[in-house]
Amino acid sequence: MKLQFSNESVGLKTLAVLLIVAYLFSLSIRYIWVGEVKNTASFHWNNALMINTNDGYYFAEGARDILSAHHQANDLSPITEPISLLTASLSHVIPVSFETLILYMSAFIGSLIVIPLILIGRTLGQTTMGFIAALIASIANSYYNRTMTGYYDTDMLNIVLPLFALYFILLALSDQRNRLLLPITLAFATYQWWYPQSYALNTALLVTTFLYAVIFERTNHYLYKISLFIIIGVLSLPFLVKIGIALAVFAFFHFFPQQDRKWFWPVFGGVILLYFAAGGIDPIWNFLKSYVMRESVSNDDAGLYFYNVAQTVREAGHIPFDVFAQRISGHTVTFLAACVGYLLAVIAYRPLLITLPLVGLGFIAMSSGLRFTIYAVAPMAIGFAYLLLLITRPIEKTPLRYAALVLLTGAALYPNYLHVKEYMTPTVFTAQEVAALEQLGKISDEEDYVISWWDFGYPIRYYSDVKTLVDGGKHTGDVNYPASYVLTQPMRNSAYMGRLSVEYTEKGFETNNSNAIIAAMLKTYKADTVDDLMMHLQLHPETLPKPTRDVYLYLPFRMMEILPTVTLFSYLDLKNPDNTLQQPFFYTTQSIQDTGGTLEFGQGISLEKARSVLHLGNQEVPIKHFYQVGYDESNTLQINEQQFASEGLNVVYMASYGRFLLLDDFYLNSAYIQMFVFDRYDKDLFEPVLNNPMCKIYKLKV
Prior knowledge:
Pyruvate Kinase, Chain: A, domain 1; 5-stranded mixed β-sheet
């Protein structure tokens, strides 16, 4: 028996108008950022605004290499990534520069979210509900942040595609025709091709759809067909293979209808076996371990323990309720109303139960990080829209009712609009930084390595066309360890680890084990610890691997803020995870208040001028050294040093930046501080390549 939905008759012309209006609304909001930052010269390169997400440079690298038909072995360029393939294809047909294309793709494609939401509303017989939901979801904080202009990333379709999948499921539930089954497989297969991490969500949608059939329509054979075609779309098999299986199954049921019920469950069971044979729940388990059951350390096959990067990613941390609510609906009141409306909508339109996996994934953001809130945006927007229709229903006069809907919808949109106005995120790099990287690209070879922190890996590879040790995708604890060590250890240890890590990474590619390089080093040199290894190399530097390529250190000013986080990954006991080492001291600020007798640095930290001591809360610490560092009119670095005590903390005033550093000897002697802040380097180990106030680049000589 067909499911009957309430009917709100909307013609195709009206539907087209609503789709266009909603799409243009979403797009126009995304131009606010462009209008605000277009006059900032440092945000432009090659006559275009630069993108504002680090990961975007990863996909841009892949698209660039596809267009050039060239990339080097083991450079990790994503030439097979769907977004890179799509970008390269669009660049052939859209008459704009490559930089302009990647800048605006997320705005134009991300705004497509309005289409499935309006179509879902139309399928339920409530096109107005779908239209209101489309307006709200398209600019909700979380969704806007990840699809704004310049946010060139897979997120531009990560919600659009599952919403299309849900639309096709609801359409199939409504009409129950066999021809509607193939679009379901196509939607799920496309989503999984575009975003392989969607496997867990797709499986959850499959289970929810199957349970819906068992609980509410147990005797309805067609609903089990829907589940079958979802499974085919979810299979961990190549895209064309899944489409081929779906076509074969569809053809069998279509041309042999008399065999349908006889062979359906054997076919269903066979596809289930194929699902488990092709991966089953392993990807789901890995997903849960990565984001839900996070641990602070992880170990490799050699028994070495490393710091887990998930502990330092803000998007994967706990968030307060008000932030959670604002990310999903723009305001706590709107969110609470949306929750009520969603429950009522599910009661009124039972098939909306199938959206529960999106809601569930969005709601785990409370414990697993704000990145997941984006998934709950659309269902909550539907809930809020339904509540508006419900509370305005008693208004008998149509004009008054629509006026009330416009007013209430505007009230819900306004907090999101304010967020857009305030969310003026900068570009990833400034023009000055990009100029340095492009210059590096001209003097380096594509097989050379640049060592920096993983935050900067993708932009370095894109602008300099070199290799990196770590990046936004390759940043597990074992590969972050050597990068952290190079940046935070004294120069000799830094240089030795720089050479070792690059050569052992390349060797690792040959053995398909490029992540276990520390264990390989210790094994080769028969050392128990990294300290033992460094002591050996200091006595026998001739035992370093023979250089096969040049290695550069990229030291940006912006790393100053995250230096303590960088340190976490190498300042630990690799053999004993329970041995918690007291972290060295580092504090930096540009927010300084001079009270006459003290300099107030915030967070209970101050400098008492008369006694040359620091106050760290209730603790009093003497100043060991005070440095004033700054550039003169000829752009030459001048350093003034004063010593006040034999022990204590060091204070560095970076006059040209208006920044104070409070740090212990560990940080003072680190390669990053010595080479960036003081321009000091060991001429036997390094040579300067590029030097500007925003970044400094050195070449390794060992």
